[in-house]
Amino acid sequence: MSLDVLPDEITLQAVSGRTLTWTGHYAVSAGLFEIRPPRIPRDARPVFDEDLDCIVGYQRSFGGCYHLYDLNGDMTAIWEGLRDTVPVEKRDPMLVVGGLWAANVRGLTALALPGIGSAMAPTTLALLRKRFSGLAATPLLFTATAHTTMNDAHRFVPVHILRLAMRHGDRIQPPPDVPGAARYLARMAIRRRSCMLDVVTTHGNATIVQFEYWPYADTLPAA
To answer: Organism's domain of life (predicted)?
Structure first.
């Protein structure tokens, strides 16, 4: 289904103002999803938090220093590299914190993704988690159709990813017949595979009217 023109049922839901809050359990792990803001350096690696089951930021090693970014691409910390820190290699696609992970130890996350334990200081990690919580905890409202989509394991997208799409996606022409609608198209990765995420909102981005995603190689979503 394309969101260029919404079905009458979804349009009526958006216009009526009848919305639902979504407080259910995630249909699949949020750690599988990623939207990477363009201003984050290409060589910065994701930081996966095993306790929160999410990518919570990015870390870059440059000039003997570590640079830490939050999910919006804002730098949150800089510290000098330690001599006993194992250099991050190409085979280390992500850094991992939380859980039973120890610094400089390579292994697989609970999602079976390879990574290496980060030597990040506890205070720095606490700051990164605080930034993430501010993005993920702010409630969103959903139309009945979007609410149903959130409970579908094959179509679900985490709340913080929807918010990142609004902040960093391209704003495009919204569907007609929905007053005050906005529409965003954003590059998203699921298990590091590129997708396009299409989100339609209203009420100043407070309400999700509908959303969908499809593999980036395809020019249009599946029918």
So the answer is: Bacteria
Tokens 């510290």, residue? 79
Predicted confidence at residue 172, as pLDDT, reads 95
With beta carbons less than 8 A apart as the criterion, state whether 117 and 56 touch: no
Q: For position 209, what pLDDT does the model report? A: 94
Q: For residue 21, give the nearest of 146, 118, 136, 121 by alpha carbon.
A: 146
* Residue 214, token pair as written in the block: 């499809």
What are 87's two structure tokens? 């250099």
CA dihedral 180, 184, 190, 195 (to 10 degrees): 130
pLDDT at position 47 is: 92
Cβ–Cβ under 8 Å, residues 37 and 168: yes
What CA–CA distances, in Å, run from 105 to 39, 112, 203? 29, 15, 46
How many CA atoms, within 13 angstroms, populate the side-chain half-sphere of residue 123?
Answer: 3
Write out the two tokens for 81.
Answer: 């590299």
Comparing CA positions, the residue from 115, 98, 107 lying closest to residue 56 is: 98
